[in-house]
Structures are given as structure tokens and as C-alpha cells.
Specification:
With 925 residues, the protein is an alpha/beta fold. It is built from 32 helices and 26 strands. Helices cover 40% and strands 13% of the residues.
Length: 925
């Protein structure tokens, strides 16, 4: 007889392998199986069961083998039952406070595991695997039900790291999934819960019908966040950065982040702002920063990022803010900055950005040591039922992308919610990974307080109308436990409402609303700048010695490592360019970064293929041929230099631009750059452009110095590889909200990058960068232009005699070199080509001065390679009155930016060039 024959065929092979593994190394098998095997001796010829069956019962008789078969099989089936609870228990929890859960099958009924009622009072060693010891099946089931099927459902068995699964099972086996708070802790939870409930009730009565996106139905979020901050302080967490949409935001600002209710009341009253320099935003979009002293005496910095109505966008920004703080102050222990992102159930399931952010979580360029994701799950999105909002079982199933654990919690059980939050914190701090909490509640008043939810969910809202709020439910529980009496709750509510009344009275005495800047400490050394300030020159000169130093370092690879020969020549050519006084575009970047690093500034660049550069011009990271070890020469300049970070990004625009925008928001002293693979692809991040980059200073009093590099130029590469859509950026420009440039010389690129850091203010900078010009022999600058020059908003024509000019042509970007080449071919001395390098703020006075200088010009031309409905033409018309009299030269208006056929592209390009020099060749008809 095979020594495993007592097992059925379905299990025997697996069991045999597992048991042999146990015999070789007991610690190599899962604790549950280890405990199981320890109770039996399968190796003896008698097939005996240690301490279970008397020897004489099993020695050499058929009866004994039958007994063994039955007993071991039952133990095995109990283990399967335990695994069933671990894997599927979350499907059968009591986590929905207002309606029955969906029915899933098979259930956890014991019959599904080959067990029956007759086994309930039989004791099983399998109980050891869950920490309950040798127990009856009835006791084991009760233990499992308490852990896995009450107010908290845990998903973790899909995790592929044994140490994490072991951690979960050990924590759960000692009932660590069950709340266990003392009387004082329970009273504090009730206090915070009362603040959440009373705050919303107060607003509901004082500001009837006004939108506030109340937390009602999810008020337990407030005591949970409070407990999270206190417990995180024990882990020596120094800073929180939180992002959340509108639901519950006002309560969080007041009851967690310490924003005065007086200020919120002023915002409800619709008062004007104390400063003219910004237009403000609705009250539930504003950010806040404060310091809080925790119970253990530690100080913790709290930040809640401003956000637009575009749900989930703020999550990417939060991760960038956190990473900037970690790089700057907590490089030795990044987990001391904790990101928290609060989602809605419909948003986390429906917005693709969430997937991009989740995929960042373990990448070198974007990881933040784990994020706590909290879903305020209303079970509805505006008017859309959850069954229409997703195909997945849970809204949090996105967590499985990175095998992150999920805790589903009944929002009415406040102790369970607090406990789950602390459990999530412990996991994050130990494993530095994301963890998700699905806070399952409801939404009391519909999407906003003016909405009528009964139109679309009459049955659900009938149940909600009868449902008690979480505070009253918890108060009854504490009263029944004898911890408080009814007067205790009344006093809590009365005291808090009196405090709110005082704040309301104080707010009515104020004429203006004051908006506190977000992260004011990071920005205390910076001023705001209007358009006039933006047009003032900034000293971007640097010493030739620094240029020489940087060049020498970035031109020499380590001698003891082997590199591809082509890379060696490319790196060495940097020194040759410097010696020959002909610096190209790549050198403009390298020397700008290097000199800023020598000054102590950090530089961060990210985007698709930025390490090498899409067009193979940058090579900021060099790979050793044999090992692929990465060499970053910019980090070898000096002992006290700034840090140079450069990362190839995941294939994302939206998420990565949001991340880098957040990074620049938190680190104004860093030159933060995002580069598009092609400028056309930046529209994948359009929400970031519209809601943050162009509007944040107006809405949130928030500066940002993010640089966007967008390769742009018509070289016959088709519709998606030609235009960076500059017309869209220019349409977003207003007053003083950003810089937009289309540089044509390496020196100008060098100085505009340095200006971005040397200025005493910060504005987003959009630069349309070249492709073909990266290696054009005419596109070079001198060392002196780098060392002693400055950024030129307009570059006049130095090759033409002013008095000979009959046609004055204004142009921007790479098209200048096409026109210059044609002018040489035609030997035209009467055409001046003037480059507008900065498109916004438009240097109107400099343009007018040049127009005045060429007084003999018979015509003024605006020339662009883009179609008439694209490019900068409409921008020129809007910002320069004289442009209405210019002869406009461009491609015809098109729906697509460029033709796919190279023959057709060249033909159109030639037509535009011809029309610049001969107005009779009008291509517009």
C-alpha cells in the first residue's frame, strides 16, 4: 500500500509532494500545513497517528487503515475549509450597512468541503493553523467567522510573497482582525464621530441647499483618519500628504487638518478674497497645510492637496508631492512621508488614471514606500448604480494589479473602521507597499445637497431615510456596554455645536475670505510675479570655469568599464564641441543641468525614453556593455552638488505629468522636467494641462515651475509625430499664468532652463523642442553665449542689411532654418527672418521695435509650417493688434496636423516656403 493511499486521488500527489517537502525542511511549508504534519507520523509502516489513535487500533489491520483514512481526510477537509475562509470569506461578510449583499456561490457551508453536522463536535488539530489550538469544528468555524465574515472582509491570499501572507495569517490568527479598544479609546472614537456628524448637521441647517458634498453615511472616516495620524506618529512618520475629492472634504479639513470652521463659513457666505492676484475656487477644492502635535508629543505636518472636479487627478499629484519630500528630506527613511489617497467607489473603478498611478507604486522613479488608499464607497456614482459602474466584483479590484491587500469595512461599525485603518498602516510601514480600504457606507442626500436621489434609487433611499447615523449606532453600543450614558452624548453634541456657533458668529464679522497657501513653508522664499515681472531679465550667466568643469566630467567615462564604441565616441565628442566652440542642443541641456547642480539645485527629468532621449541626443544615463550597470556622469560633478534624477517613465502621460507637477509643487528649488516622447502625445495629459498647469495659480494661489519639453516640427513623420499642438497651450495662456517658448538656438535653451530656477518666482514653462535640429550643423552656439549671454525673447536677423529689407518675416521654431536655407538658395537679400522665441508672454514691445527698425519693409509676414487653424497664428492675432495686417503664410486649414504621405507632406511644406518668398504663389486656394 502507498503510504499516501488514505488520501483521495485528487489530493494524494499534491499532499505527497508537500509532505516530502516538510520532511526535508519544515520551515519551507506554510504554517498551516506545518502544524498539520506535526500532529501525525505518516512515515511509520503502521500509518500511525501520533496522540490520536491507539497503536493497537492501527497495527496491520484493514480497520486501522480505514480509521486513518477517515481521520486524515477529515483533517484535510477542515484545512480546506480554513483556506476557503481565507480566500473567499470576504464575499460573505456583513459589510453593507443599508442593503443585502449579492449572493455568491459556492458558499462556505461545511457540506461544500465534505464535512457534515456530525463533525461539528469533533476536535481537529487543524485549529492550530488559525491559532485556536485543537478545537471542535464548531469552535473553529466560529473563530473563522469572527475573523473573516463580520464587519471586515480581508483580501490577501492572491499576494505572491510568502512573508506577507504569513504576516497576515499570523495577525489574523491572534484575532488581530477584531477591534479591541479600551474605554478611553472608545470615548475618543465617539468624540471624533460626533464631530463628523454634528459638523454636517450644522452646515445642513445653516446653509440650506448649498452644495457641500457631505460625509453623511461615511462619518467613520473621521475617527479613522484621526487614529491613523496618531498611530503613524508612533512609527515616526513626519508628514502626511492627502488627496481626496469633494465627498467629506470639508469635514476632513475642519476635524482632522485643523482648518478653522470660521474660514469655511466665510467661504459658504461667498465673500470675496483678500487678494486680487487670484480668483479662488469652490470651498471643497482648496488645499491646506498645518502642523499637529500628536498625543506622544511628536509634531506631524499635514497636507491636503488642492484638487479639481476631475476625480482621481489629485492622486498623481499627491504621489509627486510625497516623492519630492522624500527625496529632499527623508532619503534615508522615505516611509516617514505617508501618502493617503481618498477615492470614490465609482471613480476608482471608472478612471483609467488610477491604473497608471497604481502601476507607478513600485517603479524606481515614482515609488513612495506605499500609499494608503481609502474608498468612501457610497455604492453609487451620481445617479449610476454600482452594477452599471463596473464589471469587477469590487470597486477596489484595481488593487490586484500590484497584489495589494484590501480591507472591506462596514462604515457603520466605527471600531472596525478604525481597526482596519490601523491594520493598513501596520502593513504599509512593514512592507512599504500600497494597501486599500473599502469603506462601505452610503450617501445620505444624493450627489449634492440639491439633488433628489429618489428619482433614480427610490428603494435604496427609502432604506437610507430610516437608517440611524453611525454616531447614534455607536453611542447605543457604548451605552449598552456601560461606558457612557445618554447625557454624555448630548453634552458632546451640545459642546461641539456651541463651538461651531462661535465660529459662525466670528466669520460674519469678516469682510473678506483669506486663503492660506498650500505648503507655505516650501514657498516662503518665493514671490508672485505678474506679466511685467515675467518680462524682466533674469541673470542666467555662469562662469566659463563651471562650464569647463561640467564638460570635462560628462565627457569622460570610467576607464575600468567597457562601453559600446559608439557611446564612447559620443561622450568624448562633448569635449570636442566645447574645444571647437560649437555647442549643440544636447550640450545646452547638459550644461544647463550641470551648472545648476553645481549651484546646489536638484534636477529631475522623467518621461518616456528620457534617459537616452527619443532621438538619441541626450544619453544622460550610459550603460556598461557587459553588465548594463548605469552610469550617470552628472552625479559626479562635485561633493556638494545637487542631485540629478532622471527616469524613463512608464508609458503614461496623464499619470506621469500629474506626478511631476506634484513634484515641482513640493520642490521649487528643483528643476523638474517632463518630456513627451513626441509633443503630440502630451494631450494624453490634457486634464493636467487644463486643471493644474494653466489654472492652479488663479484657483489655488499656487505657483509651479514644471517644465514640459515637447518635440515639435514638420519633418514628414505623419499626423501624430509633427505638432505639439502649440495652439492649445497658447489658448490657455492668460495674463501671467505660464511661459511658452519655441527656441531655435542651444544658447537660448541653456538660458531658459537656468532662468526657470534662477527667477525668484515659479511659472510652468512649455518649450517646443526640435527633432531634426538636434543634429543640424547650423544649430550651434558658442561657449561665450552660454557663459555671458541671456535668454532672448526675440532674435533679430543679423545676416541682412536693414535698409535692403522689403519683406519682414516673423517666424518661430524650426521653420526658421527651412526658410533660411531657401533664402540662401534664392540669394534673397531683401527678406529678413526674425525669430520669436517666447510666445507667451509675447514680447510685443520688442516686436514693435523691430517692425519700426525695418522701416523700408513693404510687407510684414507671419510664417508658420503648421496649418492655418493650428500653430501660433491665432495667438499672434489675439495678442498683437498689428498682426491683423500681416500676410499670413501657412498650410491650409486641416483637421489633422500633418499628412501621412511623405510625398504630400514635402509638397505642402514646399508650397508654404515658396509663398513666403513669392506672394503670388498663394497656396490657400
Amino acid at each position: 500500500m502507498d503510504k499516501y493511499s488514505f488520501l483521495n486521488a485528487a489530493h494524494s500527489a499534491y499532499f505527497a509532494d508537500l509532505y516530502d517537502q516538510y520532511l526535508q525542511n519544515p520551515d519551507s511549508v506554510e504554517p498551516s500545513w506545518r502544524a498539520f504534519f506535526q500532529g501525525y507520523d505518516f512515515g511509520s509502516e503502521s500509518f500511525g497517528i501520533t496522540d490520536k489513535v491507539e497503536t493497537e487500533q492501527v497495527m496491520g489491520t484493514d480497520v486501522s487503515c480505514e480509521h486513518v483514512s477517515i481521520s486524515v481526510t477529515k483533517e484535510f477537509q477542515v484545512l480546506q475549509l480554513i483556506d476557503g475562509y481565507r480566500n473567499r470569506g470576504h464575499l460573505f461578510t456583513k459589510t453593507n450597512p443599508v442593503r443585502d449583499r449579492r449572493t455568491y456561490s459556492p458558499t462556505l457551508a461545511i457540506e461544500n468541503f465534505g464535512l457534515s453536522e456530525s463533525d461539528l463536535d469533533t476536535t481537529f488539530n487543524a485549529g492550530d493553523t488559525i491559532g485556536s489550538g485543537v478545537k471542535t469544528l464548531r469552535a473553529i468555524i466560529k473563530h473563522l467567522d469572527n475573523i473573516y465574515c463580520h464587519s471586515i472582509g480581508v483580501e490577501y491570499m492572491y499576494i505572491r510573497k510568502p512573508e506577507e501572507i504569513k504576516w497576515f495569517q499570523e495577525k489574523l490568527s491572534i484575532n488581530d482582525n477584531l477591534p479591541n479598544f479600551d474605554a478611553d479609546q472608545k470615548k475618543h472614537i465617539l468624540k471624533k464621530l460626533n464631530e463628523a456628524v454634528s459638523f454636517e448637521t450644522f452646515l445642513h441647517t445653516k446653509y440650506v441647499g448649498q452644495k457641500r458634498f457631505s460625509l453623511e453615511g461615511g462619518e467613520s472616516l473621521i475617527p479613522a483618519l484621526d487614529a491613523l495620524i496618531e498611530s503613524a506618529s508612533d512609527y515616526d512618520v513626519k508628514e502626511f500628504v492627502m488627496g481626496m475629492a469633494h465627498r467629506g472634504r470639508l469635514s476632513t479639513l475642519t476635524n482632522i487638518f485643523g482648518k478653522s470652521a470660521k474660514d469655511i463659513f466665510s467661504e459658504f457666505d461667498g465673500k470675496d478674497y483678500e487678494q486680487e492676484v487670484f480668483d479662488g475656487d469652490v470651498k471643497y477644492h482648496l488645499g491646506w497645510t498645518s502642523d499637529r502635535e500628536t498625543n506622544n508629543g511628536n509634531k506631524i505636518n499635514l497636507n491636503i492637496a488642492p484638487n479639481p472636479s476631475h476625480l482621481e487627478t489629485v492622486g498623481a499629484v499627491v504621489e509627486g508631492i510625497v516623492r519630492a519630500k522624500q527625496d529632499d528630506k527623508y532619503a534615508d527613511n522615505p516611509s516617514q512621508v505617508l501618502p493617503i489617497v481618498v477615492h470614490g467607489d465609482a471613480a476608482i473603478a471608472g478612471q483609467g488614471l488610477v491604473y497608471e498611478i497604481v502601476q507607478m507604486s513600485q517603479l524606481d522613479g515614482y515609488k513612495t514606500s506605499g500609499t494608503i488608499h481609502i474608498v468612501v464607497n457610497n455604492q453609487i456614482g451620481f445617479t449610476t448604480n454600482y452594477l452599471d459602474a463596473r464589471s469587477s466584483t469590487y470597486c477596489t479590484d484595481i488593487a490586484k494589479v500590484t497584489l495589494s491587500p484590501v480591507l472591506h469595512v462596514n462604515a457603520d461599525d466605527v471600531e472596525a473602521v478604525v481597526h482596519a485603518m490601523l491594520f493598513a498602516l501596520h502593513f504599509r510601514m512593514k512592507f512599504k507597499r500600497d494597501v486599500f480600504i473599502d469603506l462601505l457606507g452610503y450617501r445620505k442626500y444624493g450627489h449634492n445637497e440639491g439633488d433628489e436621489p429618489r428619482f433614480t434609487q427610490p428603494k435604496l433611499y427609502k432604506a437610507i431615510a430610516k437608517h440611524h447615523n453611525p454616531r447614534d449606532i455607536y453611542a447605543e453600543k457604548l451605552i449598552s456596554e456601560g461606558i457612557i450614558d445618554e447625557d454624555y452624548v448630548k453634552k458632546l453634541e451640545e459642546d461641539y455645536k456651541n463651538k461651531l456657533e462661535e465660529n459662525l458668529e466670528d466669520s460674519r464679522k469678516e469682510d473678506k475670505t483669506e486663503i492660506t497657501p498650500f505648503m507655505q513653508n516650501e514657498w516662503e522664499d518665493y514671490t508672485t510675479a505678474d506679466e511685467n515681472k515675467m518680462m524682466e531679465p533674469v541673470d542666467t550667466t555662469c562662469s566659463k570655469a563651471d562650464l569647463e568643469k561640467v564638460t570635462k566630467v560628462i565627457s569622460n567615462l570610467p576607464k575600468d568599464k567597457k562601453f559600446i564604441r559608439k557611446i564612447e565616441r559620443l561622450i568624448q565628442s562633448r569635449q570636442t564641441m566645447f574645444d571647437e566652440n560649437k555647442l549643440d542642443w544636447a550640450m545646452a541641456e547638459h550644461l544647463a543641468y550641470g551648472t545648476l547642480l553645481l549651484d546646489g539645485n536638484d534636477v529631475r527629468i522623467s518621461g518616456q525614453d528620457v534617459e537616452r532621449g527619443t532621438f538619441s541626443h541626450r544619453h544622460a544615463v550610459v550603460k556598461v556593455e557587459d553588465s548594463e550597470e548605469e552610469i550617470i556622469l552628472h552625479n559626479q560633478l562635485s561633493d556638494d552638488q545637487g542631485k540629478f534624477y532622471i527616469y524613463n517613465s512608464l508609458l503614461s502621460e496623464y499619470g506621469v505629468v500629474g506626478f511631476d507637477y506634484g513634484y515641482a509643487m513640493a520642490s521649487p528649488r528643483t528643476l523638474t522636467i517632463w518630456e513627451a516622447q513626441f509633443g503630440d502625445f502630451s494631450n494624453g495629459a490634457q486634464i493636467m494641462l487644463d486643471q493644474y498647469i494653466s489654472a492652479a495659480e488663479d484657483k489655488w494661489k499656487l505657483q509651479n515651475g514644471l517644465v514640459m519639453l515637447l518635440p515639435h516640427g514638420y519633418e514628414g513623420q505623419g499626423a501624430e509625430h509633427s505638432s505639439g499642438r502649440m495652439e492649445r497651450y497658447l489658448q490657455l495662456c492668460a495674463k501671467d499664468n505660464m511661459f511658452v517658448a519655441d527656441c531655435t538656438t542651444p544658447a537660448n535653451m541653456f538660458h531658459i532652463l537656468r532662468r526657470q530656477v534662477k527667477a525668484e518666482y515659479r511659472k510652468p514653462l512649455i518649450i517646443f523642442t526640435p527633432k531634426s535640429l538636434l543634429r543640424n550643423p547650423k544649430v550651434v552656439s558658442t561657449v561665450d553665449e552660454f557663459a555671458n549671454g541671456s535668454f532672448q525673447e526675440v532674435i533679430d536677423d543679423q545676416e541682412i542689411k536693414t535698409t535692403d529689407v522689403k519683406s519682414l518675416v516673423f517666424v518661430t521654431g524650426k521653420f526658421y532654418y527651412d526658410l533660411q536655407e531657401e533664402r540662401e538658395n534664392l540669394n534673397r537679400k531683401d527678406v529678413a527672418l526674425v525669430r520669436i522665441e517666447q510666445l507667451f508672454p509675447l514680447p510685443t514691445e520688442a516686436i514693435r521695435a523691430i517692425m519700426k527698425k525695418y522701416k523700408n519693409a513693404e510687407e510684414i509676414v507671419w510664417a508658420q509650417e503648421e496649418p492655418r487653424n493650428m500653430g501660433a497664428y491665432s495667438h499672434m492675432l489675439m495678442h498683437l493688434d498689428e498682426a491683423k495686417t500681416f500676410r499670413a503664410v501657412s498650410r491650409r486649414p486641416y483637421g489633422a496636423p500633418a499628412a501621412g504621405s511623405s510625398v504630400r507632406s514635402k509638397k505642402r511644406h514646399k508650397e508654404v516656403i515658396d509663398f513666403v518668398f513669392d506672394k503670388t504663389k498663394n497656396n490657400q486656394h
